[in-house]
Amino acid sequence: MVAIGYTIMGEQAGPKQLVADAVRAEEVGFDFLAASDHYSPWLAEQGHSPYTWSVLGAVSQATERIELMTYVTCPTMRYHPAVVAQKAATIQLLSDGRFTLGLGAGENLNEHVVGRAWPPVDVRHEMLVESLEIIRPLLQGETVTFRGTHLSTEGAKLWDLPDEAPRIGLAVSGPRSCQLAGKYADAMIAVQPEADLGAQFDAAGGGGKPRIGQVGLSYDPDEAVATKRALEQFRWFTGGWDVMAELPGPRHFASASQSVREEDIADQVPCGPDVARHVAAVQQFVDAGFTHVAVVQIGGDTQSAFFDWARAELLPELRRLG
């Protein structure tokens, strides 16, 4: 059976609400929480972006059983990998072993804020490999001195380690990232329901490991309201990953998506009260071999109504998948 998750999306809600939403997600019956890790929202209309790791610390104490993960953290620029390892170990301890460290090569939107030039994709992958060469041994209790082309650390050691290291998931979008995930990661993370990604992950050593996807949806009793909200707050993703990784700020995403129409959004995001449409969006990931799928309810002020609907209608249908 596929595991169904809920995304606490920091771009659309403040820290206290995210913690409350996490608690409600556990009560309703979701299996895991995916937490976005951003410095900026994609669009100004979303309006938020608190520090994810503080939120996760609070969530770890406010919940009891639900699994936690970052979806995803870039460990190369805004955060040094030695610090990422320390944060991951601490959340694993606080959550009693419920944490998965989701990692990726990052987006300019979040990483440019430290004042460094945004590198090309091949360099970002090189940096990601070097970060993994630091994070993995630190989480195993080793003292690490590493001198790479892009990243280094001297005599780093974690002094508070969990009995079991957190699992590491790696975000993929093509052959090179699938190769890295198969070699270094305990799980594959992807936002597109493409079976080829899983096949490439398998070929690189990922056979039998979890595949974690994510799908946006916009529930509302009024389909027109749901569609309008999805256009306002989620049109940023329609340009594809090549665009999303490169743009530096919300106003750039607004400019790049100004021609997106409601019908364009409705073609990609299930909108409205018809549970079958939302289930079909998740089913695409299941059909592509994903073992875990997190849903994102669009609209920070709509979560309470979403949870009521999810308990009554969505989750019972999603439990039939797989």
From TrEMBL:
Domain Luciferase-like: 12-292
Keywords: Oxidoreductase
Keyword Oxidoreductase: yes
UniProt keyword Transmembrane helix, yes or no: no
CDD domains: Tetrahydromethanopterin_reductase
Any one Pfam family match given in the protein's UniProt record, by short name: Bac_luciferase
InterPro entries: F420-G6PD/mer, F420_G6P_DH-rel, Luciferase-like_dom, Luciferase-like_sf
Domain of life: Bacteria
Molecular-function annotations in GO: oxidoreductase activity, acting on paired donors, with incorporation or reduction of molecular oxygen
SUPFAM superfamilies: Bacterial luciferase-like (SSF51679)
PANTHER family xref list: 5,10-METHYLENETETRAHYDROMETHANOPTERIN REDUCTASE (PTHR43244:SF1), PTHR43244
Protein name: F420-dependent glucose-6-phosphate dehydrogenase
Organism: uncultured Acidimicrobiales bacterium
